Amino acid sequence: MSRTGTPSRTTPIGTTPGFPTSGCPAPVCPTSGCAAPVDAAAARAASGVAVRRFLIGGQVRRPASLTVADLRERWAQHRARVVFDCATSGPRRHTFEGPLLREVVGEAGPAFDARRRKDRSRFLLSVTGGDGHHAVLAWAEIDADFGDAPVLLAASLDGHGLDTAGSQLVVPTDRCGARYISAITGIRVGTWEAAGECEGGPGER
Predict the structure, then answer these.
(1) Residues 6+ positions from 33 with CB-CB distance below 8 Å
(2) Are 2 and 74 in contact (CB under 8 A)?
(3) SS3 content of the chain, % helix, strand, coil (to 5)
(4) Would you give the distance in Å from CA 79 to the centre of its chain?
(5) Minimal CA–CA distance to 149: which of 119, 129, 122, 179?
(6) What is the secondary structure of 113-176 as a DSSP string?
(7) Strand partners of residue 127
(8) Does this model's pTM top 0.70?
(9) Closest CA to 180 of 31, 14, 24
(10) Which of 181, 159, 20 minimizes the C-alpha distance to 91?
(11) Residue 137's closest CA among 152, 115, 159?
(12) pLDDT grade for 30, boundaries at 50, 70 and 90
């Protein structure tokens, strides 16, 4: 549920246990040397730095354009201390804070019947980052009636705001970092054709 002011508390999420070997995009430090401004929004306004935004679109009733400041101020914050594996740099340990993905996207009004679990389970989320990397999640992964995974849209990384670098997708239940999309530019919501509805008919690809 959204809030009109800055949330008064941050809810912790458990640390991800273990990790296998797999590739992943590295989390992006918000500024050189990881030194974040005390008031990122004011600093941007004073310096003329462009505010990073990302779009939520697709099959939603209320498309949205959001900033990291929006993520911080409009929704309850959750903290995730995670460990995931990168093929190039080994284990990575970070602490992220931000709202739950399902709460942010839920406010955009995905075009499913919220009363019908089977309808909700048909929907997918495609998240794209600034480097063109993208990953797909099923709505059922994050829906409280299904997987209930505490996936975040991070507003901070290791205590430093991501206002300049852009929000990052955080999937605490993943054991590798391939879906930790950095500098998010867009989240697209929608369904995919069932195999039998594809062109060419059932059994053909």
Answers:
(1) none
(2) yes
(3) 20, 35, 50
(4) 13
(5) 179
(6) -TT-HHHHTTEEEEEEETTS-EEEEEHHHH-TTTT----EEESEETTEE-TTT--EEE-TT-SB
(7) 135, 187
(8) yes
(9) 24
(10) 20
(11) 152
(12) very low
